[in-house]
Specification:
heterodimer, A: about 220 residues, alpha/beta, Rossmann fold, 6-stranded mixed β-sheet, 4-stranded antiparallel β-sheet, 6 helices, globular, B: about 425 residues, alpha+beta, 2 domains, 6-stranded mixed barrel, about 60% helix
């Protein structure tokens, strides 16, 4: 579904971070990316999420090179096809759970209330819709972030240390959610993680070593 | 609305008013203070500009009213020799669309004269008016003709109320005529006031009948012009432009009656254009200077918005990451600028009304009456002035937020999202 071909990413300050990387993920797949700090795994995620430009290479989606899209088209593509879950949730503190979840769809100009209710139910936060993030636990906040990432029914969900700030119990709950998401919503998940104990939840696991992606 | 749903407008408002729910950090406390200081500084700038414009408008109105009160709204001047001619002009006036706005009209006669009192003399143009009774009735047995003179003129020649001074009329063979000051008038502007003298024309004729019959034929029934006074509410509606339109309509009708003599019509604003233009130009100069005050306030807002967006860079990066377009971000930031400008301008204008109330009712700023003929600042809030102040207030904030938005849309969200909690 999404395929990286011969992607190289370098920064003026640190030089080459990813060198001629190839990567592919199909529908319903879950892939983990592990690696040492600074190895380039988050950079890979940013490249996949169109948040960062590459030095060379292609990102193919339905045979089209997404890297060649204009900046505004890339933004539009992100809005429609990619969901993000970050380590620190990045919820808007002044907005309720309901409002936080509806943010991406409001950018599209249409909020499907039934779908939002279903998502809230799915992540187990139906009774929390009018709560503010600061009134919730870390695990609950992360579930809100996951619901937000799903609201536009994306094809790819990118998670960056989504469980890095949670205890083991909450981490397992989140992983179970990802497992169900891929089955229920026919999307793919790419997760960057430090926690090797959770790798078993994924279909495949890669590590970033020497600027290359190595299948574990 | 503007490509953003109600949710984003709601968020904009909450960023301002529910900050306390977010965090109690000292950093945010400082930020909140900066925001309020910015709002207050723009409010004060708006208030100052609104007040300065209203004070000048007040002076303009004061001068206009005083000038109209003494000189009429319209004056028709001709060398027609008898009052009967003027009856025709009466009819033309009454046929006008605006005839119901006319309060009164009277005839006048003018002459150069030397006014002499105990302290000295001054050459001016005096006026004899037909309905002087409205000021003070003339008693036939009186030896002096009643006059109303400007306070400044009274100071110059050393006249007081009820004192007797003399006028020397060159048009009447330099005859010296005693007159009695029945009223001291304030005319609005010191220069006009130092040249102002009106006398009872019929009293002058009776005086000549009694004492200088040989001169009577020179003045008998001789009116040079007619003054038309408008009701106040009509006067206030008239500015220079609309008065000119009114004149354009009125002039041809009057002109047809000037068959035997050349005549001219002028309105009170054109007669005092120099003074009113001077006040207007001062008003514009000061508004221009006060606009810089607004720029300073707007820069203050810029500083606050920078703090606001530095504090909120994580959220902005998130919005960009999940798919907020540059146009949407630009619009959204400008909404904030608009809200700051809107709130500050409304508060500033409200402050201006409050300060004006205290100035006028508690005499906070007193003026030397002998110079200005008014003891407190005349303040008149004109809708056009307030709109100007309001628009400039909102606009300055909007422009600044636009510049900030431009710098925000080029930022990459990636690093902020990765490293910020």
């Amino acid at each position: 579904m999404f395929e990286l071909k011969q992607v190289t990413k370098s920064y003026p300050s640190t030089g080459v971070v990813l060198n001629l990387v190839d990567f592919m993920i199909s529908e319903n797949e879950k892939v983990a990316i592990v690696g040492a700090s600074g190895s380039g795994k988050s950079t890979l995620l940013q490249v996949l999420g169109l948040l960062d430009d590459v030095s060379c290479g292609e990102l193919l989606y339905r045979s089209e090179d997404i890297f060649k899209l204009s900046s505004s088209k890339k933004t539009q593509f992100r809005l429609n096809n990619i969901g993000f879950v970050f380590q620190f949730h990045h919820l808007i503190p002044e907005m309720t759970v309901w409002e936080n979840i509806s943010l991406p769809s409001s950018l599209k100009g249409f909020v499907d209330k039934e779908w939002l209710n279903a998502l809230l139910d799915y992540v187990g936060l139906k009774d929390c819709r009018d709560k503010f993030p600061w009134q919730m636990s870390g695990g609950e906040q992360q579930r809100v972030a996951i619901a937000r990432s799903l609201v536009n029914k994306p094809r790819l969900i990118l998670t960056d240390e989504a469980t890095g700030n949670l205890d083991h119990e909450n981490s397992l709950m989140i992983m179970k959610l990802f497992e169900d998401i891929t089955k229920l919503y026919h999307c793919s998940v790419v997760s960057v993680t430090h926690d090797r104990s959770l790798v078993s939840f994924y279909d495949r696991c890669y590590s970033v070593e020497d600027k290359k992606l190595i299948l574990q | 609305m503007l490509g953003l749903s109600k949710l984003w407008w709601t968020l904009s408002l909450r960023w301002f008013f529910t900050l306390n729910k977010r965090s109690s950090s000292a950093k945010l406390g400082l930020f909140k203070s900066a925001l309020w200081v910015s709002l207050i500084s723009l409010s004060i700038a708006v208030m100052s500009m609104a007040l300065i414009l209203s004070i000048f408008s007040g002076f303009q109105s004061f001068v206009s009213e005083k000038t109209h009160d003494r000189n009429g709204g319209l004056s028709i001047v001709s060398s027609l020799q008898h009052v009967n001619y003027w009856k025709q002009f009466d009819q033309v006036v009454m046929d006008q669309d605006w005839a119901d706005k006319v309060k009164s009209h009277h005839y006048f006669w003018t002459s150069q004269a030397l006014v002499v009192g105990d302290a000295g003399g001054r050459g001016i143009v005096i006026e004899g008016i037909s309905d002087f009774d409205r000021v003070n009735s003339y008693k036939e047995e009186s030896q002096e003709i009643p006059v109303v003179i400007g306070k400044a003129l009274a100071d110059i020649v050393g006249a007081k109320k009820d004192s007797v001074i003399k006028i020397v009329l060159p048009t009447l063979s330099n005859t010296v005529i005693p007159v009695k000051v029945v009223k001291l008038a304030s005319v609005g502007v010191h220069d006009l006031e130092s040249r102002f003298l009106q006398l009872d024309h019929f009293a002058l004729m009776q005086y000549l009948q009694k004492n200088r019959k040989d001169l009577l034929k020179k003045i008998s029934g001789d009116f040079l012009g007619m003054k038309i006074f408008f009701k106040n509410e009509f006067l206030k509606e008239q500015d220079m432009l609309s008065m000119n339109v009114l004149m354009d309509d009125f002039k041809p009708k009057i002109a047809t009656l000037f068959t035997k003599s050349k005549g001219r019509i002028k309105h009170w604003l054109s007669g005092r254009q120099g003074i009113l233009s001077h006040v207007e130009s001062q008003k514009k100069s000061l508004s221009f200077i006060f606009f810089f005050l607004k720029i300073v306030a707007a820069l203050n807002i810029a500083a606050t918005l920078v703090v606001l967006f530095l504090e909120r860079d994580k959220e902005i990066a998130l919005f960009r990451a999940i798919g907020m377009s540059r146009r949407q971000l630009l619009t959204w930031v400008m909404i904030k600028g608009f809200l700051i400008g809107l709130v500050s301008s409304i508060v500033g204008i409200a402050f201006a009304f409050v300060v004006a109330y205290f100035i006028q009712n508690y005499n906070l700023v007193s003026l030397p009456f002998e110079v200005y003929n008014i003891s407190t600042l005349p303040i008149l809030f004109k809708v056009s002035d307030l709109i100007q102040v309001f628009v400039l207030g909102v606009l300055s904030s909007l422009v600044i937020s636009f510049l900030i938005a431009l710098s925000l849309v080029v930022q990459q969200p990636v690093n902020i999202l990765r490293h910020r909690r």
